[in-house]
Design a protein that fits this description.
Helix content is 82%, strand content 0%. It is elongated. The chain is mostly helical. The protein has a single domain, classed as Growth Hormone, Chain: A (Up-down Bundle), CATH 1.20.1250.20. It has 12 helices and no strands.
Length: 252
């Protein structure tokens, strides 16, 4: 197996930017950028960094510290479940469930802020548990898909010769979005209210989910060659690449 791996790696062609014009390279590249965008559109950085403030501002009937501990414990448990489900149910299904659930949870959190602003103490007395439920559900569904699977798709979809470039761009894109979302969070709350902020994230995530369903294929059980064929790489182009490689080796 190691010999076969060494042989396959020795046949990997070098990457150049003009390769991005090839459908089986640029299509999976954009298909991996989309889940990265979905991850940050779910406002995960905001909820992680501002968890205690969110619980306090939303008026939950449980202390903010206790809510944060409960959410952290949920994350640990669900991560173990996610590792089992990924290979059994497939990446696409889990990401769809995760994104849909996260979007619904964000909408529910927005409703919590809206009810607190309009009903005040009446909301706290009757539905003070709602913010904890919303964020608890959010982290459960986030952990089974939006958290780990964008990185899994990056490793499975991108051809070997473009993987280094794609990984760098996707990582920069992800952390750039994370910085932008975190930086603008406070301003968004002032501009469109806390409820409007979470509804905005819910709508962004739901919209990107539609694109994900339409354009991103399932990769479960498929080899890299099969995935390349899904994105438009023909057998003839594969043969031409092999011939080019042979010519290069002969010239050397």
């Amino acid at each position: 197996q190691l010999d076969a791996l060494d042989a396959s790696l020795s046949n990997v062609q070098s990457f150049s930017l003009k390769d991005m014009t090839m459908p089986y390279i640029y299509k999976p590249f954009f298909c991996t950028l989309l889940p990265m965008f979905m991850q940050q559109a779910s406002a995960v950085c905001v909820i992680l960094f501002y968890a205690q403030d969110i619980f306090k501002d939303a008026g939950t009937s449980i202390s903010a510290d206790d809510c944060t501990i409960i959410v952290g414990a949920l994350q640990v448990v669900v991560l173990f479940i996610a590792t089992v489900l990924t290979d059994r149910l497939g990446r696409k299904l889990l990401l769809i469930v995760s994104a849909a659930g996260s979007s619904a949870s964000l909408a529910l959190l927005g409703i919590s802020f809206h009810l607190k602003a309009t009903r005040g103490q009446e909301f706290l007395d009757s539905y003070g548990w709602l913010p904890l439920v919303a964020i608890g559900i959010y982290f459960i569904v986030y952990a089974i898909g939006l958290g780990p699977l964008p990185w899994v798709l990056l490793g499975e979809m991108i051809p070997l010769r473009a993987r280094g470039f794609a990984t760098g761009v996707c990582t920069a894109f992800l952390f750039g979005l994370a910085f932008l979302v975190t930086k603008e969070y406070d301003d968004l709350q002032i501009l469109i209210t806390p409820a409007g902020t979470y509804w905005m994230f819910a709508i962004l995530l739901a919209g990107s989910l539609v694109l994900f369903i339409m354009f991103v294929p399932e990769t479960k059980g498929k080899s890299l060659e099969e995935i390349e064929l899904l994105f438009g790489k023909s057998d003839s182009s594969a043969c031409l690449e092999a011939m080019d490689k042979d010519v290069e080796m002969t010239a050397k």
